Amino acid sequence: MKRVRLGVLGMGRQGQIHSKNIAYRIPEAELVCVSDITMERAELVGIDGVARYDDYRKLLSEQQLDGVVIATSTDTHEEVIRAAADAGVHIFCEKPIATTLAAIDEVLAYAEKKGVKFMVGFNRRFDPTFSGVKKLVDDGIVGKPMIINITSRDPQPPHLEYLKVCGGIFFDTTVHDFDMARFLSGEEIYEVYAAGSVLVDERIGELGDLDTTMVTLKFESGAVGSINNSRRTGYSYDQRVEVFGTQSCAFGNNETPTRVEYTNPQGHHSDVPLYFNIERYPEAFYGEIQAFVDCLYHDTPPPVTGSDGRKAVVLSMAAKKSWQENRPVRISEIGPV
Amino acid sequence: MKRVRLGVLGMGRQGQIHSKNIAYRIPEAELVCVSDITMERAELVGIDGVARYDDYRKLLSEQQLDGVVIATSTDTHEEVIRAAADAGVHIFCEKPIATTLAAIDEVLAYAEKKGVKFMVGFNRRFDPTFSGVKKLVDDGIVGKPMIINITSRDPQPPHLEYLKVCGGIFFDTTVHDFDMARFLSGEEIYEVYAAGSVLVDERIGELGDLDTTMVTLKFESGAVGSINNSRRTGYSYDQRVEVFGTQSCAFGNNETPTRVEYTNPQGHHSDVPLYFNIERYPEAFYGEIQAFVDCLYHDTPPPVTGSDGRKAVVLSMAAKKSWQENRPVRISEIGPV
Amino acid sequence: MKRVRLGVLGMGRQGQIHSKNIAYRIPEAELVCVSDITMERAELVGIDGVARYDDYRKLLSEQQLDGVVIATSTDTHEEVIRAAADAGVHIFCEKPIATTLAAIDEVLAYAEKKGVKFMVGFNRRFDPTFSGVKKLVDDGIVGKPMIINITSRDPQPPHLEYLKVCGGIFFDTTVHDFDMARFLSGEEIYEVYAAGSVLVDERIGELGDLDTTMVTLKFESGAVGSINNSRRTGYSYDQRVEVFGTQSCAFGNNETPTRVEYTNPQGHHSDVPLYFNIERYPEAFYGEIQAFVDCLYHDTPPPVTGSDGRKAVVLSMAAKKSWQENRPVRISEIGPV
Amino acid sequence: MKRVRLGVLGMGRQGQIHSKNIAYRIPEAELVCVSDITMERAELVGIDGVARYDDYRKLLSEQQLDGVVIATSTDTHEEVIRAAADAGVHIFCEKPIATTLAAIDEVLAYAEKKGVKFMVGFNRRFDPTFSGVKKLVDDGIVGKPMIINITSRDPQPPHLEYLKVCGGIFFDTTVHDFDMARFLSGEEIYEVYAAGSVLVDERIGELGDLDTTMVTLKFESGAVGSINNSRRTGYSYDQRVEVFGTQSCAFGNNETPTRVEYTNPQGHHSDVPLYFNIERYPEAFYGEIQAFVDCLYHDTPPPVTGSDGRKAVVLSMAAKKSWQENRPVRISEIGPV
């Protein structure tokens, strides 16, 4: 079969990772071209034989592509998605799809109308540990989920500049965990209750944001869940999940750089978890692009859809409202789901 | 110094455990006498040289005791506490102190008026693992607590007859975890939000009770927490705590019967946790009585007070109300704290 | 059935442990009497209603016992065993049975002639972790053992005075591991090769002894094994076994005081193993006496025989000879086995 | 600085891995060309812009290289090394350097005479876990090593055809562990004693080989060690090291594919270790080539020398002799070291 011809739009950190994975690790795909807003940044791809553009529109018109990976800044997603859909190429889009629910609904409808596939980059679904937990659920080892606990904490807060534009902790951090909760349980959340505080950095509070949160989840089956987030552990990325079901309790624990341990009079010591998402999720970044390629190569539906991307945003909106009004919020309050 | 003379009232399972610990493991104490409502049950003490009574009042009047351990049925606590206070003996009382907040307030005031010490049996504070986590907090290793997660699940639900009279899962199970949350954090909870379902046994739902719960905790410092409970794991007692603080994240994990492990083609396997409270908490049962003896022997205040017992009940009340009304409930709503 | 009447001879640390276990934890047995060479030491039993003697011969003649636990100093074992056998009481004897192979052979023959049961105190066989590994072997989970590795290291060396009389590391330390190797494998060792050094304390070398050793084991089935010993870890007692078989690899790992763990920027930390044999083997000390009582109560053969005690000594002799002559030594060289 | 120009000779599994690492993961190097004995196999490199040869001599004469990676069959190493040395290119050579000690000595002398660097492919030194243990030794965390235990077991035996030509278990398997023992301890072994059996497959015994071995190591400092090998675990690659020193005991444990765990009534379960060397050592394969590139790029000595390769072979010879004659063998018996 013919290799899938791909372009990567946006040569930030994530775009570079995707480019390397396409070029070096996915035999069914070919990295044809990349773009960024300047040619200097487009050159960051650093791979021979790949066309560079400083205008994604030119890229779309000149190259015959099967699909694009959209890794441009979030505020450009809407126009880039439309342009790609117009060009008839399939779309892999980093989350969030867009900054408002209305915009998300519009671009998803537009892509659907144009008949292009649309996949959202919830990479953690492709992490070997988390997908391994999901497999235990799917294989019936866990039984019916009853309690789901998700821990998701960053080593250090991002820069204040980023914090100002990221939409707040529920949209920037918890959004991943909402998707994970839906993914692991295989069902929908109908109500959330969010609590939170500013314990890490007062300036985060001054932005009207939180840095320490606890969200209660209610699933349609009656299962309950919790998501706890922090902007700062001090040690490293703390990313764990637990699915307690009728047959067993499954855990997805932290990965460590090595399996070195030692015992001395002060205790038994082992590694801290991997530092941050770049260190923890290389296989997940690879896996999501492989999955996108697979769905183009075999013409199958994408494993993470625009609807999944939309639902995680709706849950984040409900969490924010819950915290603002200090009451449980039904997801249906936010809008049709 | 003279050994502390103790009597144990109630020869149920807990009373027998306390009797053995006093007689065999606490050199500073002497098990002088026991009572139960029949002489047959009083004989269950099974230790030579210990006087048996089928009437605790007779025991209190005939024996010169320093303290009593009250392990009678909860509905008798009120009158037994009063009688012991009248006899001027110090009191160790199993939780709950009494069945209503009013009754608790009255007997605590009565004991105080009579000048007897009053200690409540929150045994888990004396578990080596949980007290070890507390020590990490106290020693500053954890830093300021920011997130506290408590998992507390039983291997199997109790008999239906017990479920009918136990007051519901918040009073019977979560009450211990509320105390643990206060113990570990060293601070007070000002608001709770409780969610729950019936996923284990429909008959529990028919009693108006829950078997699967998730309670959000808000601490005065801004720290947040969660308690998740289940009436049935199928495997064993699942009792874990996590305190995430500004300096580290501390864990109190499950104990196992052995340290046997093996690897075969199906996986790497180790023990399930210890089966239930009798297996998991022998050192905690011993430790709490040792602590009671210590506070009589050295005339120091009890480490777990009547007020601690009361507060855990108030938190359980708030959790129940929260679940019934599906809203966060301030502890101050329940009454003065 | 009638309770088993027992006396404990020798009120050193081990005799006191046995006395408490008999008196408090074994309902089928009764601690009737104890002896030591002075009445002051006999009083160390500290349990009401137990007769004290400063002469074990008087104890044997005055009391009607079913069995005795011999915990006197090793140099007295020979005469005490004979006296107990003459009195027709069954014998539990701390290891080593005696200080020479000839003496061991004689007293074992004597006890057999007198028709009394003889059990040797290889307590580690009754440790829940090691007996759990043995169970995996017996249940076929491990398959046929192919490689057995035993780690056995003390936290600190004993006093020099003790080192002078203990017979050397092979007789004092490795002897337990030889028994463990026989116990776990269920088969005999036919050849050993011993290497060793003085790395902990030069004074140990001046005594002609070693403090760091590695012994290769050859089992009759073709399985191979290793025992490594050290007189000093600095941290705590390091007692681990590994049985690698055709079906799986089984591990008996160290026990820790708690299950507390914490993660901070310096690493993930947990407890050091329990400090020494008193901390690590309380259940094993209890279990071996329970087993002795069981074999009297139910009139069954002892689970650890005089022959087991003898074989471990023969293996220690072979190890010493191997090290002295720097060559593999057949067990049959030492004498008939 | 100019990128290091490299050629890879031999496009078997290992040659392909090296080619990919050079081409995709090492920015300081350039994969210029590859060769194999047929053009079809040379094409397996599968990377655009890399020259293919079916004759390594032609490759050496036509291309201006800085270094070559020799991954051809062992019986060709001798001539390939000489040709590369003649061409004045630095050499990375897979182990074993050659099949006889004489040949090893000759080619090492030849390479030295020609002034080219020579590095041997003991990849495990570059495994993050084992190099992490080494770092604990180098940093003084372990203290002076006293006992070193190495476990090294394959999931399944290789094909019989391979077993016939591999030189036996000591040369094919233990050779890696001898290097690891030297690497971790930082010192030389002066004597070995080897025991072994045929427990996995009788046909291995018919070849005069062993499939289950235990080798005792004596280090110059007095430290002792053991290496245990098996041709078959049934589960996966079992690769662990332990360095017990005066300050702590360090462990390099197995890696697993994920960090998934689950508890059910049958036990607590986690992953088996990674299956075999391809799965376990990708970072080590990468690391060793990175190290080779570094020593060309910065003109520094190679971290694993021809002398290291030679010493591991001498130790394997001593082990074989020890087993054949059932006696400890001094390394100096084999020849000058």
Question: Which overall shape of chain A is indicated by the principal axes computed on the Cα atoms?
Answer: globular
Count of extended strands of chain A = 15
If helices are DSSP runs of H or I spanning 4 or more residues, what is the number of helices of chain A? 12
Largest interface: A-B, 38 and 38 residues
H/E topology pattern of chain A: EHEHEHEHEHEHEHHEHEEEEEEHHHE
Mean pLDDT of chain A: 97
The largest β sheet of chain A comes out as: 7 strands, mixed
SSE class of chain A: alpha/beta
Task: List low-confidence stretches of chain A.
Answer: none
Task: Give me the oligomer status.
Answer: homotetramer
Helix content of chain A: 25-40%
Strand percentage of chain A, roughly?
15-25%
Explain what this protein looks like in three dimensions.
The structure is a homotetramer of 337-residue chains. By secondary structure, chain A is α/β, with parallel strands linked by helices. Helix content of chain A is 38%, strand content 25%. Chain A has twelve helices and 15 strands. Chain A has helices spanning 13-25, 39-42, 56-62, 77-86, 101-114, 128-138, 160-165, 169-185, 202-206, 277-280, 282-297, 306-325; strands at 4-9, 29-35, 51-53, 67-70, 90-93, 118-120, 145-153, 189-197, 212-219, 224-230, 238-245, 249-252, 260-264, 267-270, 329-330. In chain A, the strands form three sheets. Chain A has a seven-stranded mixed β-sheet. In chain A, a hairpin with a 4-residue loop joins strand 9 (212-219) and strand 10. In chain A, helix 1 crosses helix 11, helix 5 runs antiparallel to helix 12 (306-325) and helix 6 (128-138) runs parallel beside helix 8 (169-185). The longest helix of chain A has 20 residues, at 306-325. The radius of gyration of chain A is 20 Å and the shape is globular. The model of chain A has no long low-confidence stretch (mean pLDDT 97). The B-C interface holds B 20, 24, 48-49, 128-129, 132-133, 136, 141-142, 247-255, 257-264 and C 20, 23-24, 48-49, 128-129, 132-133, 136, 141-142, 247-255, 257-264. Strand 12 (249-252) of chain B pairs antiparallel with strand 13 of chain C.
